[in-house]
Description:
Layout: E1 2-3, H1 6-14, E2 22-29, H2 36-46, E3 55-58, E4 68-71, H3 77-80, E5 81-90, H4 92-104, E6 114-122, E7 126-134, H5 140-150, H6 173-194, H7 196-225, E8 240-248, H8 249-259, H9 263-282, E9 291-298, E10 312-319, H10 326-346, H11 349-354, H12 361-374, E11 381-386, E12 394-395, E13 398-406, E14 415-422, E15 425-433, H13 440-461
Parallel strand pairs: 5-6, 9-11, 11-14
Antiparallel strand pairs: 1-4, 2-7, 2-13, 3-4, 6-7, 8-15, 9-10, 12-13, 14-15
Helix pairs in contact: 1-12, 8-9, 8-13, 9-10, 9-13
Amino acid sequence: xxxxxxxxxxxxxxxxxxxxxxxxxxxxxxxxxxxxxxxxxxxxxxxxxxxxxxxxxxxxxxxxxxxxxxxxxxxxxxxxxxxxxxxxxxxxxxxxxxxxxxxxxxxxxxxxxxxxxxxxxxxxxxxxxxxxxxxxxxxxxxxxxxxxxxxxxxxxxxxxxxxxxxxxxxxxxxxxxxxxxxxxxxxxxxxxxxxxxxxxxxxxxxxxxxxxxxxxxxxxxxxxxxxxxxxxxxxxxxxxxxxxxxxxxxxxxxxxxxxxxxxxxxxxxxxxxxxxxxxxxxxxxxxxxxxxxxxxxxxxxxxxxxxxxxxxxxxxxxxxxxxxxxxxxxxxxxxxxxxxxxxxxxxxxxxxxxxxxxxxxxxxxxxxxxxxxxxxxxxxxxxxxxxxxxxxxxxxxxxxxxxxxxxxxxxxxxxxxxxxxxxxxxxxxxxxxxxxxxxxxxxxxxxxxxxxxxxxxxxxxxxxxxxx
Length: 468
């Protein structure tokens, strides 16, 4: 039986009416658009590479075990691949509005947890694909790998004809309960018998994490006393606003080279400017205010790329929105990220994540749901950076020109920012609660201003060209 990992099960249980937990993207392509039938046939030919796309989640009775992935005997690809259009000539605003509505809708949890929408009618004879995949299926890094299922590196790539498929028999309720009880007893024993080194690593990881936790107490105490932007958290409604921003990767590298830090530090500093402008417009900006953002970090090893489960942990970064000097903002973010890097080196995060496999499934379900209902009090935003391909991608011979990511919101955290790099560009997809963020465009425009000001500071540090 193919059982959800503890992390994946957590994402599955956290799904609520007002907090759909799928990730997604909007990719724009050069035209003309393919036919709906051609896209369906392409996906049918690729599905054998990702069997999960024909499987649905089935819960074990009484939550005696984590849910299972089982083949959907009623799988129908025409349900999962949709066709729509915007009025010609559709610009960015029309596409964003459509994408916001599509991405804001829940997936049907009784079916395989994905959708693909073909969008026609864009200006300049372009078209788009809106994709949705539930977070319990895939994290951001693996999601980038999944692009290989649908995308080609060669515009003239040939595709195999779709093959017939027959679903495997789904286990009965009795079989699921028996399997769950058996695994609860035997999994720790198998770990002890066949994986003494893994047990040792896990114990060492727990010991190291305890040391790190003790050393982190002063930092956590500082964060607990730091005034945060409370207007960014609260109840989440069923509707979403979605905005995006674009940047040139070369600009970010220029700022990094001249001002120090990493590209990710520069990106977080630009986002800080966006939140600063947002809070200033609301009259909620104080000199020592911060926006605390959760930054997911992949702990996936190189050999695990392409696996479809979640291998993530997270750190919390205080964005110094109250600081007027962009140099000081960058320095503060760099210091925090450097500290987290040292911490992550001291802790075997994979071992800690793996300990969730031994949590009683009923407690796991209740705990995750309770956390989502209680609301997030420790951070105000989610910011996740997913590196994409630096080479052109194609679908049915058409070149992808841009892609913007979609990251879900939940648990009282009412805004998220997904970051995606492709070729020489970096894009920002901003997902926000509809009622809480009528000013979401101030944030997206502020991110662009933040990048521009860092590039300007970098130019000031460059030596002047010699005069002849």
